[in-house]
Amino acid sequence: MATDQVVTPADATLAGYLQSIELAVVNAYDNIGAFLSDTTKPIAAKFQGHHKEYADALLVHAGTSAVKLPNPSLAFVLGARVQGVTDERSALTMAVGVENQVAETYAFALTTLTTPDVIHLVATILPVVASHAVILGSSAGLSTAALFPNGALEGAMVGDGADTKLGYDPASFPVG
Amino acid sequence: MRLDRRQFIKIGSVTLLGTAIAACTKDKPKPAPGQTTTTEPTTTSSGAPPSDIALLKTATSLEALAIGVYQRAAGAALVKDPAALDVTTLFMAHHTTHQLTLNTLLEAAEVSAITAPNDVMDKAIFQPALSAAKTQDDIVQLLFTLEEVLAQTYVYSADILARPEHRVAIATIAATQARHRVLLGSVFGMQGIDDLLPTAFSKSNNPLPADALLN
Predict the structure, then answer these.
(1) What is the distance of C-alpha B212 from the center of its chain?
(2) What pTM value is reported for the model?
(3) Partner-chain residue, chosen from A124, A128, A147, that has the shortest CB–CB distance to B197
């Protein structure tokens, strides 16, 4: 994806951060694959492919903040969560939580971004990531209320990763 | 006339989805799609850009439309499945919150609240489609299209809105409506994943006819 706009340093840093989050999510999908059935594996593969696309798209805007590896702190957190996965439902439920938190992280990003190309990119990613959560949650048999963890409005706040209603705080998940 | 689901799935843009609804119903005249109007400046002492005000007013009118469509859909008593009824009730409540949120932003910009539904969209698309609906599937397809139109309008708007608080509100509403859309499409509309999410990125072109935008 070509860009003809100058990305501000702050936005480039945030793009690199988001890229690192996406790479961690791509790895997480690899780690839950063994628990999925023939019905849900193609869905997870499709969503994992989306996250690869997001990482590639963010790379374009990250400049010198671009990363090559997944966010180490998030990779650690998600690796620990995978240890608690025992079956397909728990794998899908974990993925729902991750997708929700990624969506919230993108909404948070929109509170500070100023570069139009990056705003556009994030605005077009956010609804699809939120949609991932609903499709996975439906497959896991979650209640309707659980498919809208923040109610009528997507959350735009971040935390240390423990609360799935909050996105991933860059301060808690340093790029490296 | 029964709405044909495949007809919606195969057409690439939301505007054409809406056009398809109208064409399936009463052949009501429809405005040209995908164009924006030249916005007359709306002067506010708050300093909010006129384009922000126009988009917020339009979005609020779409939320009022959505509430009305859900109410009329409930009144038609075609949705029988208890789970579908619960979902539509929840979504109507969400739209009420969205309207309130957007009106709060308008009032902060010293612009009067919008309570009337978007008349152009209602008359051109949703009134005839509701009149033509005969089954629960028809209603679900109509609500699916409604959610898709709103979500796409807001993604388009997020590109243009200058104030971060306006952009974040619109984007977070768009994400919820995207959730509505896929739940309606996957659970109640029985659409496949490739139809629901054909690409990794949301469409961001303006799906509204020119005269549906409020200045």
Answers:
(1) 11
(2) 0.89
(3) A128
